[in-house]
Specification:
10-stranded mixed sheet, 4-(cytidine 5'-diphospho)-2-C-methyl-D-erythritol kinase activity, Aminopeptidase, transferase, 7-stranded mixed sheet, alpha+beta
Amino acid sequence: MSFRIERAVTAHVDAICAIERTAVQMFREHPVWPFYKAISIPPEQLEEAIQRGLVWVALDDESNEPVGFVWLDTEHGGDVIGIAEIDVLPAYSRRGIGAALLEHACDWARAAGYRRVDLGTLADVPWNAPFYAKHGFVTVNKWDAAFAYARDRDRENGFPDALRVFMSRRLSLPAADEWTVWPAPAKLNLFLRITGRREDGYHELQTVFRLLDWGDEIRLRTRDDGEIHRLTGVPGVPAETDWLVHAATLLRTHAGVRAGVDIEVEKRIPMGSGLGGGSSDAATALVALNHLWKCGLSADELAELGRQLGADVPVFVRGRSAWATGIGEHIKPITLPKRWYAVLDPHEHVSTETLFQASELTRNAPPATISSFASGETLENAFEPIVRARHPRVAAALDWLGGHGHARLSGSGGCVFLETATIEQAEAVARRCPASFTAWVVEGVGLSPLHRALSRHGATG
């Protein structure tokens, strides 16, 4: 048989869970069986990992069905990533599928700047520790403080300490001519108020940007010929109008470098959604290429370049959730409580330009304060009444989500969201989402995933 490895999609959830339940049967005669049979993959957690791009499947080329999978987790943080689960259907064993999945996951982790891959496994099972040892993993002292997180997780799952060993594989940083992987996180506007209009036609606004641990993925490979090539892009967006290409070109010109770059993008943030996809992609290009091209520009200089591309780009460049004023360029980092969000995509594009031109838009609202936002008094979005009137699918999404709490519109787009105090609450809402919408469960973060990646890749900023 032949197979290929692709990123998993949410439609694979049931198949992946079935693979795990089938594969675990191979441990029936092992002392670990009572513990393995008692736990299974939580579908909600798996779906969230898939949405974040942390799961890959091996697909049978003939049937196009998953026959194996690997799932990475970022629980440890820093420059360490873990293998949460890797399984292959027993009927497809000894065909190199497990090895291909493992190497694919490690290659991605290396491109993303991770320096170590950890896992927990069984020492006396041939397809466990001996298999990993063949692929560069070594047994480590599980009592080392660095592996406390893994010990805690094993105990939460009911695994006795004596049955499992921990293994690690060191990863080198990518070479200058290799692909690197960078996140372009989405954002939510927790409120948006327009307080005036300037003589140049731009609107004065107030908003809170909440960065999310989810978004697009940008892949970059430097060139020495000065060419900027977009190898993949967004349907309907020509390279000459792509903010990614504009950002790379602007940085190259400003910094006076002769380097070039190949660009690939995996879009997860819908266009016209109000989640900042184009702005975030541009910011990621500026920040990542400043590092890869060794331009040496400061955060202030990169933010100013970002402002030339779009009003929202600077907040992504600076990488902190923030209170923003002016046309969005005056940014003050803000500390927000730990929260999760059920985000709904009604699949209806909303034009930012059209909204700003709407005659019924309120342009003279009194200024809000941080204290009024923190108290919950200021949570409105100035564009919501217009979007409700002109976009029935968005209105329907707001109405449905409003049945579970305070539904809000994000930015000047079509996506809507509900804030929750726990991930379980957000998952419960997402499970009930009508089939006509797409739901994501995402975590709000104070520090951007882009800046965490920058740190992993050995840079500061």
